Amino acid sequence: MVATDKIFSDFQEHSVAEFFKKNKQMLGFAGKTRSLTTIVHEYVTNSLDACEEAGMLPEITVVIAEIEKNNSYRVRVEDNGPGIPKKHLGKALGMMLAGTKFHRYAQQRGQQGIGAAGCTMYAQLTTGKPVRVVSHYDKKRIECTISIDFKTNQPNIETSAEEDTDGSEHGLVVDGEFADVKYDKSAYGVYEYIKRTAMANPHATITFAAPDGENLKFPRSVEEVPPKPKAVQPHPMGLSTHDIIDYAHHDAQSTRISSFLQNSFTRVSSEKVKELQAIANEVDFSKKPSELEWAEAEKIVKAIGKVKWIAPATESIVPIGKRQIEKSLGGILKPQFLEVSERSPKIYKGGIPFVIEVAIAYGGDAGRNSENGGSGKSGDIIRYANRAPLIFDAAGCALTQAVKEIDWKRYGIKRFEEEPVTVFVNIASVHVPYTGAGKQAISDEEEVTAEIKNTVMEVARRMQHYLHEIIKEKDRAGRRKVVERYLKQLSIDLADLAEKGKASELEEKMKKLIENKYPSLMGEGDEEGENGNGGNGKGEKEER
Amino acid sequence: MVATDKIFSDFQEHSVAEFFKKNKQMLGFAGKTRSLTTIVHEYVTNSLDACEEAGMLPEITVVIAEIEKNNSYRVRVEDNGPGIPKKHLGKALGMMLAGTKFHRYAQQRGQQGIGAAGCTMYAQLTTGKPVRVVSHYDKKRIECTISIDFKTNQPNIETSAEEDTDGSEHGLVVDGEFADVKYDKSAYGVYEYIKRTAMANPHATITFAAPDGENLKFPRSVEEVPPKPKAVQPHPMGLSTHDIIDYAHHDAQSTRISSFLQNSFTRVSSEKVKELQAIANEVDFSKKPSELEWAEAEKIVKAIGKVKWIAPATESIVPIGKRQIEKSLGGILKPQFLEVSERSPKIYKGGIPFVIEVAIAYGGDAGRNSENGGSGKSGDIIRYANRAPLIFDAAGCALTQAVKEIDWKRYGIKRFEEEPVTVFVNIASVHVPYTGAGKQAISDEEEVTAEIKNTVMEVARRMQHYLHEIIKEKDRAGRRKVVERYLKQLSIDLADLAEKGKASELEEKMKKLIENKYPSLMGEGDEEGENGNGGNGKGEKEER
Q: ipTM > 0.90?
């Protein structure tokens, strides 16, 4: 046996901050352009979430400026949200896996409590500087710098000013310096990111001052705050044995399993508890939740599967809405055709509600400019999760895959890659199944993928009618052109063969014939031959 | 201002175990087949790492059995490695982000300290049971069960037996029960996973007892333990300002920056320190490392960029090796053509060494069976990172993308999707840039992607010569066949036109003509007309 003591002398524990410091790419810090987009993404989604949760119409200002002397960028994001109280400020921006969203069962853009702290990490790693924060919360104004101690995943907060206010101002300003980032106007850059955010958030006003001096403003096109997503209790259908045990053992209030079930989950009435008890009759529903055992919980799960349930509450899901998407895409893409789905929420993994929203825009500014720089367009898929744009990892995303698997030919799109078409897909859910902590792609959950396909197909069918009309029209126009092209010569030849001089009369007659066959198209045809003199050629030579 | 106190009353901190419990899909627990493969993957890679680190030829046994009564599977993985000492056993299997590998700068399959603890988590979540472990380490045998406390990310270990041994036995057995998993023989299943592991680890013997009763054994085809990957110090070229600060502030031994640089990084001689000092002359190299400031470290990084360095030590990188890959793929795929690259290590992000190994196999059992069940083959890409197969997330993986972006037509492959070709790619590195904690795809690092393409093209060029010969041959055979098909009839017709009865003689003459034009192909042709009588025709009519 070899000496292996040395191997284990290295045994260590690490903090989650150390993990993501070493694996920055998992948070989206891979490549300079992507890293800058990730920073803006994390701050802007937090701002939107905060405003909506407080029931305010978001006003967000993003300023990016280049600091030439050391090759870095300053990123400043300001919102008019509620701000963050002093007590939580350090952890919200300087500790990973801390926040208000992680355990809440409500639809929000953020759901992990990693993003903003990840940006603080990236500032420290690339410029050695903490982020500067100003928070107006309640009647306080706090100014501070925040950094992370990677070893412990604890925030370092240094308050530089703290004062009382009249409470009229509110909101958060985060301001950091970052190197190893780059601003560009590619499809992966901040510019595109903000444009896409505006598309899916017509209730927000977003202002962007770019480092190249450009100033953009996307004013809101809708004046209503979206309904506040309600935090809901889980639906029984989505529970695993472990979940039930977990909830039961952490329930300090309920004295019996029967009341625990009613208190902890949605749609569980006392009637339903009776039904469950009748099926899982070996389980003593009067015992304490803390004493529930695995085998018993397993029986409850089985019973849940046999009872009829009202579908999960869907007030936790707030889609963008058909009218909002129409306004927003209509204004930005000015397409010839635009259709938006409007479907009811579905459920995945048995209990997690979600809604898929799809819009298809055709013509106008729809589609993506072809990469070879020509004037050609190619089909574009723009993806969102809870209204936040997904820019990266398209190839590994279930949204992309579902759209690509559609047989577009059936819907009048010969080659998706070569048509001026934009497919807009948003998934709204209390828990979006991201493939990674960077939150840029959706995992392939069977029910989600199926619903995306169905929704796209539904909208595509409506587009098909439209395209069909265009094609028919084009077809008719094409055929008529061909006939007309030969009309005059044919008339001459025929007249020549029949009776000299009557060509123009013959042409007139045939024109009428065509007119009857392709009615909608007359009018703009060329005027030649109108008062034409009958010509006569011999034409004989051409015959054979 | 609305009341937002309620929002923050929810503020919580969470453990990394809770995070991955809620986001299981990020560890590869998404879908039943994939989940089972993930479990086997984590245990087998740990076993291989352990054996190699101890300098032993790995003997690994995987047993999967279905437990019908509760729809779960038992997975047992046994190895002949060094085992794990009692002190570390709980944390190694019951705590996330703990282990020996995270901070070590050496090539290993595992690098995060999450995988095995993730499997323990999955056992708990799906069956409520801890994993059972037997460890023979040194002269001890320990038998215990291990689970995770999710709230704290701390292991629960219950030892059921502990005894002294003579030390002749060594190794680890992990044995867990998992539900929400499925065994199948698809391209994503355990069967394929183990086959691919065997392909890239010809020094390991792997035995697999499948739940369908099948017993597989992949005996080693190579009797040498691969050279033990050495842990190396980082190369200066890969250091960021933050890295230097971080190393400096944690260096308790060195008394000056000059000695710190020599002690902490590879290739830094006292000569090099002098060169650096000459360039970064504002920095006081005699001060304590703990006092190094950001601006100073920044100057050192700039100086590093200006000095000429010997390339990073590459003894930390252990490729599989050309001969080993030939033996292994040759044996398993029995291809008509097989070529393996043999390139020197390259560097990414300035300082992380890696090697790309590519093999292309054509014909025989190479390629993937077409999905429509026909006998057709399609091109297959099999991916590895440090010899561990990457089975999932192919679309989002830089290895796949690099191979797909090759213009295969240039190398004689008309459509990659329709040819019996297997492209084998392995990346060996001290730090593999995975896109996620599930370690199934490689992030698109510029230098890595470029090297993959170059390596594939290098091997593809050699294949091209081979395919070119085949195509030429086929082409010749094809043309000859066409000519021959008409030969007889043509002879008859010509002869008929010229002089009756001479057809066979004419045919003979023409055959000779073809023979001269397509020499290599004669022999197997049909024998008709062999003893034909001579003919001669005028052929004039055919002229114009």
A: no
